[in-house]
Design a protein that fits this description.
- The complex is a heterodimer.
- By secondary structure, chain A is mainly alpha-helical.
- Chain A has one domain (about 1-15, about 30-325).
- Helix content of chain A is about 75%, strand content about 5%.
- Chain A has helices at about 1-25, 30-55, 60-80, 100-120, 125-145, 170-195, 195-205, 210-215, 220-245, 255-265, 275-290, 295-310, 315-325, and strands at about 85, 90-95, 155, 245.
- In chain A, the strands form two sheets. In chain A, strands 1-2 form a two-stranded antiparallel sheet. A two-stranded antiparallel ribbon of chain A has the order 3-4.
- In chain A, a hairpin with a 5-residue loop joins strand 1 (about 85) and strand 2.
- By secondary structure, chain B is mostly helical.
- Chain B has a single domain, classed as ABC transporter involved in vitamin B12 uptake, BtuC (Orthogonal Bundle), CATH 1.10.3470.
- Chain B is built from eleven helices and two strands; from the N terminus they run H-H-H-H-E-E-H-H-H-H-H-H-H.
- Chain B has helices at about 1-35, 40-60, 60-85, 95-115, 140-165, 165-175, 180-185, 190-210, 220-235, 240-265, 270-295, and strands spanning about 130-135, 140.
- In chain B, helix 2 (about 40-60) packs antiparallel against helix 3.
- The radius of gyration of chain B is 20 Å and the shape is globular.
- The mean pLDDT of chain B is about 90.
- The chains are: A mainly alpha, B mainly alpha.
- Chains A and B meet through helix 5, helix 10 and helix 12 of A and helix 4, helix 9 and helix 11 of B.
């Protein structure tokens, strides 16, 4: 574990280094890529809380990612054309202030996670996997058939949402905003995991019956984890919309849920930095293999299958083992 | 007018439902016997459709193409089961989900590699083209009636296979107690391969038959796979009866909902917004149905608790 901690420090170091290098050598593309890694990493860290630490195999986290994205897109869309979103029961207009958007994103993703959690946590095992998947698909089809915000074509926002004083249109500045969120999310997750609540939800993964028998209401614990997890992923969705200045139903698709899951598994399940490493690996793979062949997903599939059949514990564990023997 | 439309849509719903049944029967069987969640089941639907399109292109015969869809998907099923899936039975659901998710990527890209990115077309045979009068003033597509007929035929066939044959006894025994039947001398790994291939070939057949109405393209399997999941969650995972009833229920709800919900809403709302709200809710209707059923019965209509 100690080696993993040193490795994690290196990850943070690179997260500061790469975009700065990108800035110095005037390669803004690398800044954008690293921003993408950070945002997808946040989404993965959100899922990891439910999936890795609590054993809730959610195959529908795209729902939160997409909701966060759409809330951001819709608010900003209305701010630009200065139309009201709705005038009843209270007057609501759009906004392009991140400081306004973020709390709304957090509240709405938490609310969605509460509803989905209440319904799907009644079930376990395969049913839970399929129900979370189905809820995400439900939102996906809703987004496709709802014409007001672009339907299948998606919604473009022409200006990135803003913060006071700072210029968010600058790639490096926006990157550091995302990095701040990453550090906040990692900090919160670490605190949660080591709290007594964290002990409870990690124990549920091992044996729910026993946790029940010591008098903990496991349903409430699981629901709370699910809500926190969904909220973090929703926040990542909001940042993702701002990064691309575009949102389309494809982020709600089941493939997105699968990809977020892949980040968690590739990096190493129930490891704090695992999803970040997984996301980085995924993006690097996409960039390098995608340069050689159109069919890079074929190789991704192959690597994944080999990982699941033979390695089983993710990239971070490779470092752990290697150093363990040297000790 | 409205009752004719309703009847026609009802038939469309049943036709859609029978195809969903072919998908979900295999899915639920594989889960029931081997305890495996197979996300790659949609890929067999795609492989079946592509095998059919290939053979139809070579020979021009629709019937040979249907045969090719069955055997193509079955061969792919046997290969994939023995190479990869077999190692997943003892793993937890998370590993199964991910490995079969990876398989989707692998198979989709593999097929794209072989056949290119453009959709292929599969022609309906001459004698199934056109329409057939059913009642006085209702006419309906012959091919869609054929699909319904095939679906019902296979449902009956499966019923006899499961209840009346030796293989069926083994499958049912496998669902109840895996260790016991292997202790009784049944070659369990062969049984697993057979069940997997059976499921895959049913999916392949469905792919070929739907491919003739729509187009044959990469990624065609996943939308219907997710519907098949909804079906087996509604019907109860592992139950073929549940899969049949769930399929028809989902098929009819989806088809009727999309057509009639906008009409229904027009009574209360202005037409333009009724159409958009209605079609949005219509496309979500089966998921709402699923949520309702789960609130009443968390293990599905025919699932074991």
């Amino acid at each position: 574990m100690i080696v993993e901690k040193i490795f994690n420090k290196w990850i943070l170091f690179f997260l500061f280094l790469i975009p700065v290098l990108g800035f110095i050598f005037e390669e803004p593309y690398y800044i954008t890529l690293t921003t993408k890694v950070v945002i997808l990493g946040i989404a993965g860290i959100g899922l990891n809380l439910a999936l890795g630490y609590c054993g809730l195999i959610s195959f529908g986290h795209a729902a939160f990612f997409g909701l966060g994205g759409y809330v951001t897109g819709i608010l900003s869309f209305h701010a630009l054309n200065s139309e009201l979103i709705f005038s009843w029961p209270f007057v609501t207009s759009g906004s392009s202030e991140m400081l306004v958007i973020w709390p709304i994103v957090i509240l709405s993703s938490a609310f969605l996670a509460l509803i989905i959690g209440l319904l799907s946590l009644r079930t376990t095992g395969v049913y839970f996997i399929m129900i979370t998947l189905a809820f995400a698909q439900m939102l996906y089809f809703f987004a496709i058939s709802w014409p007001n915000y672009g339907g299948e074509d998606g919604l473009s926002i022409y200006m990135r949402n803003s913060l006071p004083i700072i210029n968010t249109m600058d790639p490096l500045t926006f990157y550091f905003i995302c990095l701040c969120w990453l550090l906040i999310v990692i900090f919160i997750s670490a605190k949660l995991i080591n709290s007594s609540f964290g002990m409870a939800f990690q124990a549920i993964k091992q044996n729910e019956e026993r946790v029940k028998s010591v008098g903990i209401e496991t349903f409430k614990v699981k629901l709370l984890v699910f809500v926190i997890s969904g909220t973090i992923t929703g926040l990542a969705g909001s940042l993702y919309t701002d990064l691309n200045r575009f949102i389309s139903p494809s982020v709600l698709n089941w493939q997105m849920s699968g990809e977020i899951m892949v980040f968690v598994i590739l990096g190493g399940i129930a490891r704090l930095y695992g999803p970040l490493v997984g996301a980085a690996f995924f993006i690097v793979l996409e960039q390098t293999l995608g340069g050689y062949t159109e069919n890079w997903q074929f190789w991704l599939g192959l690597i994944l299958i080999l990982e699941i059949l033979y390695v089983r514990t993710g990239i971070l564990s490779l470092f752990e083992k290697k150093f363990k023997y040297e000790k | 007018m409205s009752s004719i439309l309703f009847f026609e849509q009802l038939l469309n719903g049943i036709q859609f439902g029978t195809m969903l049944f072919l998908m979900s029967a295999g899915l639920t069987l594989i889960f029931g016997v081997m305890g495996l969640i197979n996300l790659a089941h949609g890929s067999f639907y795609m492989i079946g459709a592509f095998s059919a399109a290939l053979i139809a292109g070579l020979t021009g015969s629709f019937w040979l193409a249907l045969l090719a869809s069955l055997s193509g998907a079955a061969i792919a099923g046997v290969l994939i089961e023995t190479l990869i899936i077999r190692r997943l039975y003892r793993r937890d659901h998370l590993d199964q989900v991910l490995a079969t998710f990876a398989l989707i990527l692998l198979l989709s890209e593999g097929v794209r590699w072989c056949f290119g990115a453009f959709p292929l077309y599969l022609d309906i045979p001459e004698n199934l083209n056109g329409t057939l009068p059913i009642l006085d003033d209702i006419i309906y597509s012959k091919y869609r009636l054929f699909i319904i007929f095939m679906g019902l035929l296979i449902a009956t066939g499966l019923y006899f296979l499961i209840t009346k044959t030796r293989l069926g006894v083994r499958i049912r025994a496998g669902q109840n107690d895996r260790q016991m039947i292997s202790a009784l001398g049944v070659d369990i790994s062969k049984l697993y391969t057979i069940v997997f291939a059976l499921g895959a070939s049913l999916a392949g057949l469905a792919g070929a038959m739907i491919g003739a109405i729509q187009s044959v393209e990469v990624g065609m399997g996943e939308p219907i796979l997710i519907l098949a999941f909804v079906v087996i969650v509604i019907g109860g995972i592992g139950s073929i009866k549940g899969a049949l009833i769930g399929s028809i229920l989902v098929g009819i709800t989806d088809t009727i909902g999309r057509i009639f919900l906008p009409e229904l809403l027009k009574i209360f709302m202005e037409p333009a917004s009724a159409t958009s709200v209605g079609s949005s809710i219509g496309s979500m209707l089966i998921y709402i149905l699923m949520a309702l059923i789960l609130i009443i019965k968390p293990s599905g209509l025919f699932g074991k608790t």
